[in-house]
Amino acid sequence: MAKNFCTRAENYSQWYNDIVKQADLAENSSVRGCMVIKPYGYAIWEKMQATLDKMFKDTGHVNAYFPIFIPKSFFSREASHVKGFAKECAVVTHYRLKNNPEGTGVVVDPEAKLEEELIVRPTSETIIWDTYKNWIHSYRDLPILCNQWANVVRWEMRTRLFLRTAEFLWQEGHTAHATREEAVEETERMLHVYADFVENFMAIPVVKGVKSPNERFGGALDTYCIEALMQDGKALQAGTSHFLGQNFAKAFDVKYLDKENKEQYVWATSWGVSTRLIGALIMTHSDDNGLVLPPNLAPIQVVIVPIYKSEEQRQAIADKVQPLLQKLKEANISVKFDNDDTKRSGWKFNEYELKGVPVRIAIGPRDLENNEAEVARRDTLQKETVSFDGLLEHIQQLLKDIQKNLFEKALNFQKENTRKADTWEEFVDLLDNKPGFVYAHWDGTPETEDKIKELTKATIRCIPFNNPLEDGKCILTGKPSKQRVLFARAY
RNA sequence: CGGGGUGUAGCGCAGUUGGUAGCGCGCUACGUUCGGGACGUAGAGGCCGGAAGUUCGAGUCUUCUCACCCCGACCA
Questions:
Q1: Which protein residue lies nearest to nucleotide B68, measured between its Cα and the C1' atom?
Q2: Residues 376-395 of chain A: which lie with beta carbon within 7 Å of strand B?
Q3: Is A342 contained in some domain?
Q4: Which of A256, A285, A314 is the last residue of a domain?
Q5: Where does a domain end: A359, A391, A413?
Protein backbone atom coordinates (compact mmCIF):
# COMPACT_ATOMS: atom_id res chain seq x y z
CA MET A 1 0.00 0.00 0.00
CA ALA A 2 1.23 3.47 -0.78
CA LYS A 3 1.73 5.37 2.44
CA ASN A 4 1.40 9.10 2.33
CA PHE A 5 2.70 9.73 5.80
CA CYS A 6 5.42 8.68 8.14
CA THR A 7 5.23 6.16 10.95
CA ARG A 8 5.10 6.77 14.68
CA ALA A 9 8.61 5.38 15.05
CA GLU A 10 10.07 7.64 12.37
CA ASN A 11 8.69 10.88 13.75
CA TYR A 12 5.80 10.93 16.15
CA SER A 13 4.94 14.62 15.73
CA GLN A 14 5.00 14.36 11.97
CA TRP A 15 2.86 11.23 12.14
CA TYR A 16 0.29 13.15 14.19
CA ASN A 17 0.24 16.05 11.73
CA ASP A 18 -0.05 13.67 8.80
CA ILE A 19 -3.01 11.86 10.34
CA VAL A 20 -4.86 15.11 10.96
CA LYS A 21 -4.26 16.16 7.39
CA GLN A 22 -4.75 12.84 5.61
CA ALA A 23 -7.86 11.89 7.56
CA ASP A 24 -9.26 15.28 6.60
CA LEU A 25 -9.88 16.39 10.18
CA ALA A 26 -8.44 19.89 10.10
CA GLU A 27 -5.96 22.20 8.46
CA ASN A 28 -4.06 25.35 9.22
CA SER A 29 -5.84 28.54 8.25
CA SER A 30 -4.59 31.85 6.94
CA VAL A 31 -4.79 33.11 10.50
CA ARG A 32 -1.67 32.30 12.48
CA GLY A 33 -2.37 29.70 15.13
CA CYS A 34 -5.99 29.18 14.16
CA MET A 35 -7.23 26.00 12.53
CA VAL A 36 -10.04 25.15 10.18
CA ILE A 37 -11.90 22.12 11.49
CA LYS A 38 -13.03 20.28 8.37
CA PRO A 39 -16.38 18.50 8.06
CA TYR A 40 -15.06 15.07 9.02
CA GLY A 41 -13.25 16.41 12.07
CA TYR A 42 -16.22 18.52 13.02
CA ALA A 43 -18.51 15.51 12.76
CA ILE A 44 -16.44 13.84 15.46
CA TRP A 45 -16.72 16.96 17.61
CA GLU A 46 -20.48 16.99 17.06
CA LYS A 47 -20.75 13.43 18.30
CA MET A 48 -18.72 14.34 21.36
CA GLN A 49 -20.90 17.38 21.93
CA ALA A 50 -24.12 15.43 21.60
CA THR A 51 -23.00 12.79 24.08
CA LEU A 52 -21.58 15.21 26.63
CA ASP A 53 -24.54 17.54 26.31
CA LYS A 54 -26.89 14.73 27.20
CA MET A 55 -24.71 13.78 30.16
CA PHE A 56 -24.78 17.39 31.37
CA LYS A 57 -28.55 17.59 31.02
CA ASP A 58 -28.92 14.28 32.83
CA THR A 59 -27.02 15.74 35.76
CA GLY A 60 -29.33 18.74 35.93
CA HIS A 61 -27.46 21.31 33.88
CA VAL A 62 -28.84 23.76 31.35
CA ASN A 63 -27.16 25.57 28.48
CA ALA A 64 -26.78 29.32 28.16
CA TYR A 65 -24.56 31.72 26.27
CA PHE A 66 -22.38 34.56 27.51
CA PRO A 67 -20.50 37.22 25.50
CA ILE A 68 -17.20 36.57 23.76
CA PHE A 69 -15.94 39.98 24.95
CA ILE A 70 -15.03 40.76 28.52
CA PRO A 71 -14.30 44.27 29.83
CA LYS A 72 -10.64 44.50 30.74
CA SER A 73 -11.39 45.62 34.28
CA PHE A 74 -13.15 42.34 35.06
CA PHE A 75 -9.89 40.50 34.81
CA SER A 76 -8.17 42.41 37.56
CA ARG A 77 -10.85 41.47 40.10
CA GLU A 78 -9.37 38.09 40.93
CA ALA A 79 -5.62 38.25 41.38
CA SER A 80 -4.51 34.70 40.60
CA HIS A 81 -6.99 34.48 37.71
CA VAL A 82 -5.47 37.47 35.92
CA LYS A 83 -2.01 36.11 36.59
CA GLY A 84 -2.95 32.86 34.88
CA PHE A 85 -4.25 34.39 31.68
CA ALA A 86 -2.80 37.90 31.26
CA LYS A 87 0.02 36.78 29.00
CA GLU A 88 -2.19 35.19 26.37
CA CYS A 89 -5.14 37.53 25.91
CA ALA A 90 -6.28 39.07 22.64
CA VAL A 91 -7.46 42.64 23.19
CA VAL A 92 -10.00 44.65 21.22
CA THR A 93 -9.11 48.33 21.22
CA HIS A 94 -11.15 49.82 18.36
CA TYR A 95 -14.54 49.32 16.81
CA ARG A 96 -14.26 50.80 13.32
CA LEU A 97 -12.19 50.71 10.14
CA LYS A 98 -11.95 53.34 7.45
CA ASN A 99 -10.48 53.67 3.97
CA ASN A 100 -6.79 54.41 4.08
CA PRO A 101 -6.49 58.16 3.37
CA GLU A 102 -2.89 57.65 2.19
CA GLY A 103 -3.45 54.82 -0.23
CA THR A 104 -5.37 51.62 -0.72
CA GLY A 105 -6.99 49.26 1.75
CA VAL A 106 -8.41 50.00 5.15
CA VAL A 107 -6.91 51.21 8.41
CA VAL A 108 -8.11 51.26 11.99
CA ASP A 109 -9.98 54.48 12.60
CA PRO A 110 -8.10 56.21 15.45
CA GLU A 111 -11.30 58.11 16.26
CA ALA A 112 -12.96 54.82 17.14
CA LYS A 113 -10.96 53.88 20.19
CA LEU A 114 -12.87 52.01 22.88
CA GLU A 115 -13.09 53.74 26.21
CA GLU A 116 -12.53 50.41 27.94
CA GLU A 117 -10.71 47.74 26.01
CA LEU A 118 -12.38 44.35 25.61
CA ILE A 119 -10.67 41.02 26.15
CA VAL A 120 -11.57 38.13 23.88
CA ARG A 121 -12.51 35.48 26.46
CA PRO A 122 -9.79 32.98 27.33
CA THR A 123 -12.43 31.54 29.71
CA SER A 124 -15.63 33.03 31.05
CA GLU A 125 -15.54 33.01 34.85
CA THR A 126 -15.41 36.79 35.12
CA ILE A 127 -18.24 37.71 32.78
CA ILE A 128 -20.35 34.90 34.18
CA TRP A 129 -19.85 35.86 37.81
CA ASP A 130 -20.54 39.46 36.94
CA THR A 131 -23.84 38.17 35.55
CA TYR A 132 -24.59 35.76 38.38
CA LYS A 133 -24.43 38.70 40.77
CA ASN A 134 -27.74 39.82 39.31
CA TRP A 135 -29.26 36.37 39.29
CA ILE A 136 -28.56 35.40 42.88
CA HIS A 137 -30.18 37.02 45.91
CA SER A 138 -31.60 34.20 47.98
CA TYR A 139 -30.82 30.60 48.83
CA ARG A 140 -33.90 29.90 46.73
CA ASP A 141 -31.98 31.05 43.62
CA LEU A 142 -29.38 28.34 44.14
CA PRO A 143 -27.93 26.23 42.76
CA ILE A 144 -27.30 27.62 39.29
CA LEU A 145 -26.06 24.92 36.96
CA CYS A 146 -25.14 26.47 33.60
CA ASN A 147 -23.03 25.22 30.77
CA GLN A 148 -22.03 26.99 27.59
CA TRP A 149 -20.65 25.68 24.32
CA ALA A 150 -18.30 28.31 23.01
CA ASN A 151 -15.04 29.30 21.41
CA VAL A 152 -12.23 30.81 23.45
CA VAL A 153 -8.97 32.48 22.52
CA ARG A 154 -5.60 32.00 24.15
CA TRP A 155 -2.76 33.63 22.28
CA GLU A 156 -0.31 30.74 22.27
CA MET A 157 3.18 31.17 20.91
CA ARG A 158 3.41 27.73 19.41
CA THR A 159 0.40 25.89 18.16
CA ARG A 160 -0.49 22.39 17.01
CA LEU A 161 -3.71 21.30 15.39
CA PHE A 162 -6.27 20.34 18.07
CA LEU A 163 -3.66 20.13 20.85
CA ARG A 164 -2.96 23.82 21.16
CA THR A 165 -4.47 26.46 18.93
CA ALA A 166 -5.05 30.17 19.47
CA GLU A 167 -8.77 29.69 19.16
CA PHE A 168 -10.50 26.48 20.20
CA LEU A 169 -13.95 25.11 20.87
CA TRP A 170 -15.02 23.83 24.24
CA GLN A 171 -17.73 23.71 26.81
CA GLU A 172 -17.46 25.45 30.13
CA GLY A 173 -19.75 24.67 33.01
CA HIS A 174 -20.18 27.32 35.68
CA THR A 175 -22.14 26.50 38.77
CA ALA A 176 -23.11 28.42 41.89
CA HIS A 177 -23.94 26.76 45.20
CA ALA A 178 -25.05 27.63 48.71
CA THR A 179 -22.51 25.49 50.51
CA ARG A 180 -18.95 24.41 50.22
CA GLU A 181 -19.95 20.74 50.39
CA GLU A 182 -22.37 21.09 47.52
CA ALA A 183 -19.75 22.81 45.34
CA VAL A 184 -17.12 20.20 46.09
CA GLU A 185 -19.64 17.49 45.30
CA GLU A 186 -20.41 19.16 41.96
CA THR A 187 -16.71 19.45 41.12
CA GLU A 188 -16.29 15.74 41.73
CA ARG A 189 -19.49 14.79 39.95
CA MET A 190 -18.43 16.52 36.76
CA LEU A 191 -14.97 15.04 36.85
CA HIS A 192 -16.59 11.64 36.98
CA VAL A 193 -18.85 12.57 34.08
CA TYR A 194 -15.74 13.43 32.08
CA ALA A 195 -14.00 10.23 33.05
CA ASP A 196 -17.08 8.23 32.13
CA PHE A 197 -17.29 9.94 28.75
CA VAL A 198 -13.61 9.69 27.90
CA GLU A 199 -13.35 6.05 28.93
CA ASN A 200 -16.63 4.72 27.60
CA PHE A 201 -17.13 6.77 24.47
CA MET A 202 -13.60 7.72 23.49
CA ALA A 203 -12.17 4.43 24.80
CA ILE A 204 -9.34 6.32 26.47
CA PRO A 205 -8.40 5.19 29.98
CA VAL A 206 -7.65 8.03 32.39
CA VAL A 207 -6.21 8.64 35.82
CA LYS A 208 -8.44 10.82 37.99
CA GLY A 209 -6.83 13.05 40.53
CA VAL A 210 -6.17 16.48 41.94
CA LYS A 211 -3.61 18.96 40.62
CA SER A 212 -0.69 20.19 42.67
CA PRO A 213 -0.85 23.90 43.56
CA ASN A 214 1.51 24.77 40.69
CA GLU A 215 -0.77 23.25 38.09
CA ARG A 216 -3.96 24.59 39.59
CA PHE A 217 -6.31 26.79 37.57
CA GLY A 218 -5.94 30.52 38.29
CA GLY A 219 -8.56 31.38 40.88
CA ALA A 220 -9.34 27.81 41.99
CA LEU A 221 -8.89 26.27 45.43
CA ASP A 222 -8.65 22.84 43.89
CA THR A 223 -8.37 21.57 40.33
CA TYR A 224 -9.39 18.00 39.58
CA CYS A 225 -8.34 16.44 36.33
CA ILE A 226 -8.31 13.35 34.19
CA GLU A 227 -4.95 12.49 32.67
CA ALA A 228 -4.46 10.22 29.68
CA LEU A 229 -1.29 8.64 28.36
CA MET A 230 -0.46 9.03 24.67
CA GLN A 231 1.37 6.44 22.58
CA ASP A 232 4.64 8.37 22.74
CA GLY A 233 4.57 8.20 26.53
CA LYS A 234 3.54 11.80 27.07
CA ALA A 235 0.59 12.68 29.26
CA LEU A 236 -2.34 14.73 28.08
CA GLN A 237 -4.78 16.51 30.34
CA ALA A 238 -8.15 15.46 28.99
CA GLY A 239 -10.45 17.44 31.22
CA THR A 240 -10.52 19.62 34.32
CA SER A 241 -13.03 20.45 36.99
CA HIS A 242 -12.36 23.30 39.41
CA PHE A 243 -13.56 23.99 42.92
CA LEU A 244 -13.43 27.78 42.97
CA GLY A 245 -14.40 28.28 46.60
CA GLN A 246 -15.76 31.77 47.18
CA ASN A 247 -13.02 33.50 45.21
CA PHE A 248 -15.18 34.66 42.34
CA ALA A 249 -18.15 35.37 44.58
CA LYS A 250 -15.97 37.69 46.61
CA ALA A 251 -14.36 39.27 43.56
CA PHE A 252 -17.76 40.00 42.01
CA ASP A 253 -19.67 40.44 45.24
CA VAL A 254 -22.14 37.61 44.73
CA LYS A 255 -24.05 37.03 47.99
CA TYR A 256 -27.31 35.42 49.00
CA LEU A 257 -29.50 35.48 52.07
CA ASP A 258 -29.68 32.10 53.73
CA LYS A 259 -32.64 30.68 55.66
CA GLU A 260 -31.50 32.53 58.78
CA ASN A 261 -31.55 35.81 56.81
CA LYS A 262 -27.76 36.02 56.96
CA GLU A 263 -25.64 37.16 53.99
CA GLN A 264 -23.37 34.47 52.56
CA TYR A 265 -20.93 34.39 49.69
CA VAL A 266 -21.77 31.87 46.97
CA TRP A 267 -19.61 28.80 46.30
CA ALA A 268 -18.50 28.12 42.75
CA THR A 269 -17.25 25.48 40.35
CA SER A 270 -16.23 25.46 36.71
CA TRP A 271 -15.32 22.60 34.42
CA GLY A 272 -14.40 22.12 30.79
CA VAL A 273 -13.26 19.91 27.97
CA SER A 274 -12.20 21.08 24.54
CA THR A 275 -11.50 20.05 20.97
CA ARG A 276 -8.16 19.01 22.39
CA LEU A 277 -9.88 15.72 23.10
CA ILE A 278 -9.72 15.04 19.38
CA GLY A 279 -5.95 15.20 19.70
CA ALA A 280 -6.16 12.68 22.53
CA LEU A 281 -8.34 10.45 20.39
CA ILE A 282 -5.82 10.45 17.57
CA MET A 283 -2.79 9.85 19.75
CA THR A 284 -4.41 7.07 21.76
CA HIS A 285 -5.78 4.76 19.08
CA SER A 286 -4.39 5.57 15.66
CA ASP A 287 -1.72 3.51 13.94
CA ASP A 288 0.69 3.74 11.03
CA ASN A 289 -2.16 3.13 8.59
CA GLY A 290 -4.10 6.17 9.71
CA LEU A 291 -6.83 7.22 12.07
CA VAL A 292 -8.58 4.65 14.25
CA LEU A 293 -11.95 5.68 15.67
CA PRO A 294 -13.91 3.99 18.44
CA PRO A 295 -17.38 3.09 17.09
CA ASN A 296 -19.13 5.28 19.66
CA LEU A 297 -17.56 8.40 18.15
CA ALA A 298 -17.16 7.45 14.50
CA PRO A 299 -19.22 9.66 12.15
CA ILE A 300 -19.37 6.65 9.84
CA GLN A 301 -19.45 3.37 11.75
CA VAL A 302 -19.81 1.05 8.79
CA VAL A 303 -18.87 1.63 5.18
CA ILE A 304 -20.00 -0.66 2.40
CA VAL A 305 -17.79 -0.79 -0.67
CA PRO A 306 -19.07 -2.51 -3.80
CA ILE A 307 -16.66 -4.31 -6.10
CA TYR A 308 -17.79 -4.63 -9.70
CA LYS A 309 -16.79 -4.61 -13.34
CA SER A 310 -20.01 -4.03 -15.18
CA GLU A 311 -22.92 -1.74 -14.60
CA GLU A 312 -25.10 -4.85 -14.18
CA GLN A 313 -22.94 -6.04 -11.32
CA ARG A 314 -22.97 -2.59 -9.77
CA GLN A 315 -26.74 -2.56 -9.88
CA ALA A 316 -27.03 -6.10 -8.55
CA ILE A 317 -24.87 -5.21 -5.55
CA ALA A 318 -26.83 -2.02 -4.92
CA ASP A 319 -30.05 -4.07 -4.91
CA LYS A 320 -28.56 -6.63 -2.56
CA VAL A 321 -27.26 -3.97 -0.18
CA GLN A 322 -30.44 -1.90 0.04
CA PRO A 323 -32.26 -4.00 2.70
CA LEU A 324 -29.06 -4.24 4.73
CA LEU A 325 -28.70 -0.45 4.72
CA GLN A 326 -32.23 -0.19 5.95
CA LYS A 327 -31.68 -2.67 8.74
CA LEU A 328 -28.45 -1.04 9.88
CA LYS A 329 -30.08 2.38 9.99
CA GLU A 330 -32.98 0.98 11.97
CA ALA A 331 -30.45 -0.44 14.40
CA ASN A 332 -29.06 3.10 14.82
CA ILE A 333 -25.81 2.30 13.09
CA SER A 334 -24.42 5.05 10.88
CA VAL A 335 -23.62 3.46 7.57
CA LYS A 336 -22.36 4.73 4.25
CA PHE A 337 -22.79 2.86 1.00
CA ASP A 338 -20.03 4.23 -1.20
CA ASN A 339 -21.34 3.55 -4.67
CA ASP A 340 -19.25 6.33 -6.21
CA ASP A 341 -18.30 5.18 -9.69
CA THR A 342 -15.44 7.67 -10.05
CA LYS A 343 -13.28 5.95 -7.41
CA ARG A 344 -11.98 2.41 -7.55
CA SER A 345 -12.61 -0.02 -4.74
CA GLY A 346 -8.93 -0.28 -3.77
CA TRP A 347 -8.76 3.47 -3.47
CA LYS A 348 -11.81 3.43 -1.22
CA PHE A 349 -10.34 0.74 1.02
CA ASN A 350 -7.35 2.94 1.70
CA GLU A 351 -9.42 6.06 2.09
CA TYR A 352 -11.69 4.61 4.78
CA GLU A 353 -8.79 2.96 6.53
CA LEU A 354 -7.08 6.35 6.68
CA LYS A 355 -10.25 7.89 8.07
CA GLY A 356 -10.60 5.28 10.78
CA VAL A 357 -14.01 3.88 9.85
CA PRO A 358 -14.40 0.98 12.32
CA VAL A 359 -16.01 -1.58 10.00
CA ARG A 360 -15.81 -2.04 6.25
CA ILE A 361 -18.00 -4.39 4.29
CA ALA A 362 -16.89 -5.29 0.77
CA ILE A 363 -19.26 -7.00 -1.62
CA GLY A 364 -18.27 -8.28 -5.05
CA PRO A 365 -19.69 -10.67 -7.66
CA ARG A 366 -18.16 -13.65 -5.87
CA ASP A 367 -19.90 -12.67 -2.62
CA LEU A 368 -23.18 -12.24 -4.45
CA GLU A 369 -22.95 -15.80 -5.70
CA ASN A 370 -22.19 -17.18 -2.25
CA ASN A 371 -24.56 -14.86 -0.36
CA GLU A 372 -21.60 -13.56 1.66
CA ALA A 373 -19.71 -10.38 2.37
CA GLU A 374 -16.16 -9.56 3.40
CA VAL A 375 -16.06 -7.80 6.76
CA ALA A 376 -12.91 -5.96 7.81
CA ARG A 377 -12.32 -4.32 11.17
CA ARG A 378 -10.12 -1.24 11.42
CA ASP A 379 -8.65 -1.84 14.87
CA THR A 380 -6.99 -5.19 14.11
CA LEU A 381 -7.10 -4.98 10.29
CA GLN A 382 -8.57 -8.50 10.26
CA LYS A 383 -10.86 -9.62 7.48
CA GLU A 384 -13.43 -12.38 7.51
CA THR A 385 -16.14 -13.72 5.27
CA VAL A 386 -19.61 -13.59 6.78
CA SER A 387 -22.91 -14.95 5.54
CA PHE A 388 -25.06 -12.12 4.30
CA ASP A 389 -28.06 -13.22 6.32
CA GLY A 390 -26.50 -12.82 9.74
CA LEU A 391 -24.71 -9.61 8.86
CA LEU A 392 -26.71 -7.20 11.04
CA GLU A 393 -26.15 -9.16 14.25
CA HIS A 394 -22.54 -9.72 13.32
CA ILE A 395 -21.92 -6.01 12.80
CA GLN A 396 -23.67 -5.04 16.01
CA GLN A 397 -21.46 -7.39 17.97
CA LEU A 398 -18.37 -6.36 16.06
CA LEU A 399 -18.86 -2.68 16.86
CA LYS A 400 -19.12 -3.55 20.54
CA ASP A 401 -16.01 -5.68 20.31
CA ILE A 402 -14.03 -2.95 18.63
CA GLN A 403 -15.08 -0.39 21.22
CA LYS A 404 -14.05 -2.77 23.98
CA ASN A 405 -10.85 -3.83 22.31
CA LEU A 406 -9.67 -0.26 21.78
CA PHE A 407 -10.19 0.57 25.43
CA GLU A 408 -8.46 -2.56 26.62
CA LYS A 409 -5.55 -2.03 24.29
CA ALA A 410 -5.13 1.52 25.54
CA LEU A 411 -5.51 0.40 29.15
CA ASN A 412 -2.80 -2.22 28.70
CA PHE A 413 -0.54 0.38 27.17
CA GLN A 414 -1.15 2.67 30.11
CA LYS A 415 -0.43 -0.10 32.61
CA GLU A 416 2.72 -1.19 30.81
CA ASN A 417 3.99 2.36 30.77
CA THR A 418 3.27 3.28 34.34
CA ARG A 419 6.29 2.75 36.57
CA LYS A 420 7.73 3.66 39.93
CA ALA A 421 10.96 5.51 40.57
CA ASP A 422 12.67 5.57 43.95
CA THR A 423 15.81 7.52 43.17
CA TRP A 424 16.60 10.57 41.11
CA GLU A 425 18.73 8.55 38.67
CA GLU A 426 15.97 6.05 38.18
CA PHE A 427 13.46 8.85 37.65
CA VAL A 428 15.50 10.58 34.97
CA ASP A 429 16.34 7.29 33.32
CA LEU A 430 12.67 6.32 33.05
CA LEU A 431 11.65 9.68 31.63
CA ASP A 432 14.34 9.52 28.99
CA ASN A 433 14.29 5.84 28.09
CA LYS A 434 10.87 4.54 29.03
CA PRO A 435 8.56 7.52 28.69
CA GLY A 436 5.25 7.19 30.48
CA PHE A 437 3.65 7.77 33.85
CA VAL A 438 6.09 7.67 36.73
CA TYR A 439 4.99 7.40 40.35
CA ALA A 440 7.51 8.99 42.67
CA HIS A 441 7.74 10.60 46.08
CA TRP A 442 7.64 14.38 46.32
CA ASP A 443 8.17 16.54 49.37
CA GLY A 444 5.00 18.54 48.66
CA THR A 445 6.59 21.93 48.04
CA PRO A 446 6.07 24.05 44.91
CA GLU A 447 9.80 24.82 44.86
CA THR A 448 10.69 21.17 44.46
CA GLU A 449 8.09 20.71 41.75
CA ASP A 450 9.51 23.71 39.87
CA LYS A 451 13.01 22.38 40.20
CA ILE A 452 12.00 18.95 38.90
CA LYS A 453 10.27 20.59 35.97
CA GLU A 454 13.31 22.70 35.23
CA LEU A 455 15.64 19.71 35.33
CA THR A 456 13.52 17.12 33.53
CA LYS A 457 10.55 18.91 31.90
CA ALA A 458 8.35 16.48 33.77
CA THR A 459 5.46 17.83 35.80
CA ILE A 460 3.15 16.43 38.41
CA ARG A 461 0.14 15.39 36.39
CA CYS A 462 -1.97 14.74 39.44
CA ILE A 463 -2.23 13.24 42.86
CA PRO A 464 -4.60 10.35 42.10
CA PHE A 465 -7.81 9.91 44.04
CA ASN A 466 -7.61 7.12 46.62
CA ASN A 467 -3.85 7.31 46.33
CA PRO A 468 -2.31 4.75 48.69
CA LEU A 469 -0.32 6.28 51.54
CA GLU A 470 3.27 5.12 51.72
CA ASP A 471 6.24 6.57 53.57
CA GLY A 472 9.16 7.49 51.40
CA LYS A 473 11.69 10.14 50.47
CA CYS A 474 11.34 12.88 47.87
CA ILE A 475 13.29 11.86 44.77
CA LEU A 476 14.88 15.30 44.51
CA THR A 477 15.36 16.57 48.06
CA GLY A 478 15.22 13.36 50.08
CA LYS A 479 12.75 14.96 52.46
CA PRO A 480 10.02 12.73 53.88
CA SER A 481 6.91 12.08 51.81
CA LYS A 482 3.64 10.35 52.62
CA GLN A 483 2.64 9.30 49.12
CA ARG A 484 3.78 8.93 45.53
CA VAL A 485 2.46 11.38 42.95
CA LEU A 486 2.06 10.94 39.22
CA PHE A 487 4.79 12.51 37.08
CA ALA A 488 5.13 12.68 33.29
CA ARG A 489 6.21 14.88 30.49
CA ALA A 490 3.04 16.37 29.12
CA TYR A 491 1.41 18.01 26.12
C1' C B 1 11.66 37.53 21.69
C1' G B 2 16.38 34.50 20.52
C1' G B 3 18.59 30.34 16.92
C1' G B 4 17.82 27.84 12.21
C1' G B 5 15.04 27.20 7.67
C1' U B 6 11.52 27.88 3.51
C1' G B 7 8.72 31.00 -0.10
C1' U B 8 8.52 28.78 -8.06
C1' A B 9 1.24 25.46 -11.03
C1' G B 10 -4.02 23.21 -6.26
C1' C B 11 -0.10 20.07 -3.33
C1' G B 12 5.18 18.31 -3.06
C1' C B 13 9.61 19.87 -5.40
C1' A B 14 13.86 20.83 -9.33
C1' G B 15 15.84 24.98 -11.78
C1' U B 16 23.75 24.73 -13.46
C1' U B 17 28.45 30.26 -14.90
C1' G B 18 22.21 35.48 -15.18
C1' G B 19 19.42 34.27 -21.52
C1' U B 20 12.54 34.65 -20.77
C1' A B 21 10.36 28.02 -16.35
C1' G B 22 10.19 22.28 -15.63
C1' C B 23 9.13 17.29 -12.93
C1' G B 24 5.86 14.17 -9.77
C1' C B 25 1.00 13.96 -7.68
C1' G B 26 -3.67 16.03 -8.43
C1' C B 27 -7.20 18.11 -12.19
C1' U B 28 -10.13 17.69 -17.43
C1' A B 29 -11.48 14.48 -21.87
C1' C B 30 -11.45 9.72 -24.25
C1' G B 31 -10.24 4.53 -24.16
C1' U B 32 -8.72 0.03 -21.66
C1' U B 33 -9.22 -1.60 -16.57
C1' C B 34 -11.78 -2.74 -11.70
C1' G B 35 -11.29 -8.49 -4.95
C1' G B 36 -6.03 -3.20 -1.42
C1' G B 37 -4.41 3.89 -3.67
C1' A B 38 -4.82 1.08 -12.23
C1' C B 39 -2.72 2.30 -17.13
C1' G B 40 -2.33 4.76 -21.93
C1' U B 41 -3.12 9.01 -25.07
C1' A B 42 -4.37 14.08 -25.36
C1' G B 43 -5.07 18.64 -22.52
C1' A B 44 -5.73 22.87 -18.88
C1' G B 45 -2.90 25.36 -15.18
C1' G B 46 2.75 29.84 -12.95
C1' C B 47 4.00 38.08 -14.52
C1' C B 48 8.82 32.44 -9.65
C1' G B 49 6.03 36.05 -1.70
C1' G B 50 6.50 41.72 -2.25
C1' A B 51 9.46 46.32 -3.27
C1' A B 52 13.77 48.69 -4.94
C1' G B 53 18.53 48.14 -7.26
C1' U B 54 22.72 46.06 -10.64
C1' U B 55 22.31 44.47 -15.95
C1' C B 56 20.99 44.71 -22.88
C1' G B 57 18.51 40.85 -19.97
C1' A B 58 16.94 38.59 -12.97
C1' G B 59 13.50 32.55 -10.56
C1' U B 60 19.00 33.07 -10.34
C1' C B 61 23.10 38.71 -8.01
C1' U B 62 22.51 43.01 -3.99
C1' U B 63 19.54 45.62 -0.31
C1' C B 64 15.04 46.11 2.19
C1' U B 65 10.41 43.99 3.49
C1' C B 66 6.37 40.40 4.35
C1' A B 67 4.65 35.56 5.41
C1' C B 68 5.00 30.71 7.07
C1' C B 69 7.62 26.35 9.28
C1' C B 70 11.12 23.98 12.85
C1' C B 71 14.04 24.29 17.74
C1' G B 72 13.92 27.15 22.53
C1' A B 73 11.47 30.63 26.26
C1' C B 74 5.54 30.46 27.48
C1' C B 75 1.20 27.33 27.84
C1' A B 76 -4.42 23.31 27.92
A1: A32
A2: 376, 381, 383
A3: yes
A4: A285
A5: A413
Alpha-carbon span A36 to A20, nearest angstrom: 11
pTM score, whole prediction: 0.96
Q: How many CB atoms lie within 10 A of CB A428?
A: 17
A5 part of a folded domain: no
Q: pLDDT tens, A26-59?
A: 888 877 888 889 999 999 999 999 999 999 999 9
Give the CA A5 to C1' B15 distance in Å: 27
Q: What nucleotides of chain B have any atom within 7 angstroms of a protein Cβ?
A: 1, 33-38, 67-76
How many domains does chain A contain in total?
A: 3
Residues 339-358 of A with CB under 7 A from strand B: 344-347, 349-351, 353-354
Q: Is the CB atom of residue A4 positioned under 7 angstroms from any atom of strand B?
A: yes
